[in-house]
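2024-03-11 09:14:02 DEBUG pipeline.ingest accepted 1 chain
2024-03-11 09:14:02 DEBUG pipeline.ingest length=213
2024-03-11 09:14:03 DEBUG pipeline.predict start
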Amino acid sequence: MTSPDHDRHLGGARRAVNADVRVLLGDAERALRADQLAVARAAFLEAGQCAASYQLWRSAQRCYRRALELDLTDRDAVGRIVQLPPRVIALADWHDYARALDLRTGSRGWPSFSCRAAQIVTGNVGAQVECPGTGVVMELMMTEDDLVETRPEARFAGMPLAMAMIILRRALWFAPRELAPDPASIRVAFDGRPQVWLDELGDWEPVGAAAPR
């Protein structure tokens, strides 16, 4: 049992670190607007480390995911998420991500690409997700009002679920509300896997695990 003084101190410390995280995220966004990608990546990673040092695990994961939006093949960012406590992340999904990157090196590797400006485009072949500089990365169709069915484009066969969720979040919510208390969500069926709920914060969980938020 902790004392009221200790609890007040901890609460103040967490508010302070949240402020620090917000400052770092602001630095990252300003760097992005100035097209300073390396600076932005470093700030996102530092924000994640700052949050993790105060055991703000979900905030840390979201910061690291924002670094991955700049380069979905960033092994360092994936590795940092894998090190977070398994009770707060879908650990198997992130191990799959790390293994997928490890299996694709050299001429077999996926190109470095960003999904910050991912968009859904429609044409004669149906709906697809495109990322600037990379082209089509996923195919999708809306089979129900709240269900998206999707699979990776042939070049990205074997795409891990976590990578797909990061891309889809940006494609479905071009300007997601990063601090939304009531994030919108949608069901996703990816590449034959069981359905998950994906929300605009970028979090996902199996359908049936909890009610949609």
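2024-03-11 09:14:41 DEBUG pipeline.report The longest strand covers residues 135-144.
2024-03-11 09:14:41 DEBUG pipeline.predict end
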